[in-house]
């Protein structure tokens, strides 16, 4: 039978051990966990995040919508008050990404790579087929006219005659497959590619929104991103694109910054995120929107607001998306001029249906209906930086302005029209499998400290029990009797 003194010693010994161990581990657990999290997330050839990042295993889909112009005859007859469009789609493609030609730069903790992307049409998920015909503005005519807008009037007359040799008007009908990946032939492109002395630089023999892009390694350009090895907070940030740390935009608008959207450092408390989009040669700012839950994981959603494609009309710091001299080329807020990024074509990017844009754009087009679910948004689990859901949504528009001397271009009802061509939604959401991995990591972070608190409390309870017994013995013991004899002290051997 265990004596009272032995019981006191055991309670005091084990209680002290649990209190000290629990308290020490509570203090050191957060840095230990963060150290393990860094080992998992920092990009190295052996890290868990590397294999997921290199070839994204989560299903991704590209939904494409086209704006079919339905009143071409009225426009050509001069009786139309607006352009009328009907949105066609979605035409859904399964998308896959693979990072290739990797170069590790250990001197500055960066990784250089190319992003190879593939798209495969999914007829069962689509509303229509790739053979559907779409009528819209001929991008070649709109581009040539836009490039010639500042040329001598007689040169423009010559361009008009040249365009009339091959085209009756500025409208073009082609099937979805041609508009997307196959490309559309045009005699003007053939001549432009054979005559490099012309003041028109068009590097492709066909026009298509994704022409020569399916499976291309070079199209998106090279990326140089931070691995997080020397500064974990910089994980996934783009340092250079196409071997440069700036794009064609001036001042802060020309900075190469933000994540490509696939890899994030823990972002707890960040009011804004930056997503670098090579398609538009700049970054998109997403602001904190709302709390969200995906597959049982709590996260924060970031979304674009009316500052995303402003150019100084509402937000002064966005004025760098326009020229220093604000002229007619600086359009109202909500459409970003990416013409320099698209070989001089009058291409402008907006949110779908001109969401959050100046009302003047949508007023000129009949058939648009912007809703908040068309917004560009991204949801992250804030502690691990894990993307929970992504809906990258943008609209491509062509600016058609009346150019004196080129009447083939001057038939639209309004002399200054932003014509919606197509919009896309690139969507992905974490799977139950990867959500389970995230939940396991989060349980370790939150439950282990609770377990340590419980151990500490048990230890305190044991200490209180031992001290209580000790005090009772002190009260009952003679003054000269030891409370615990040497034989009753538990051995630590």
Describe the structure in your own words.
This protein has 493 residues and is of the alpha+beta class. The chain has two domains: 1-57 and 449-493; 59-430, no CATH class. The chain contains nine helices and 18 strands. It has helices at residues 4-41, 48-54, 72-77, 139-147, 153-164, 176-182, 187-194, 359-363, 432-476; strands at residues 60-69, 83-105, 110-121, 133-137, 171-175, 184-185, 206-207, 222-226, 238-241, 272-277, 282-294, 297-303, 336-337, 347-350, 365-366, 377-381, 386-401, 416-429. Strands 1, 2, 3, 8, 9, 10, 11, 12, 13, 14, 15, 16, 17 and 18 form a 14-stranded mixed beta sheet that branches. A two-stranded antiparallel sheet has the order 4-5. Strands 6-7 form a two-stranded antiparallel sheet. Helix 1 (4-41) runs antiparallel to helix 9. The chain starts with a helix and ends in a 17-residue tail after the last helix. The model has no long low-confidence stretch (mean pLDDT 84). Pfam families: CD36 (PF01130). It comes from Mythimna separata.
Radius of gyration: 32 Å
Q: Percentage of helical residues? A: 25-40%
Shape assignment: elongated
- The overall average pLDDT, rounded, is 84
Ends apart, CA distance between termini:
22 Å
**What fraction of the residues are assigned to beta strands by DSSP?**
25-35%
* N-to-C SSE string, H for helix and E for strand: HHEHEEEHHEHEHEEEEEEEEHEEEEH
State the low-pLDDT regions, or none: none
Class by helix and strand content? alpha+beta
How many β strands by DSSP?
Answer: 18
- Biggest sheet architecture: 14 strands, mixed
Count of DSSP-assigned helices:
9
Tell me the domain tally: 2
Transmembrane segments: 450-471
Keywords: Cell membrane, Disulfide bond, Glycoprotein, Membrane, Receptor, Transmembrane, Transmembrane helix
Membrane topology: Multi-pass membrane protein
GO cellular component, one term: plasma membrane
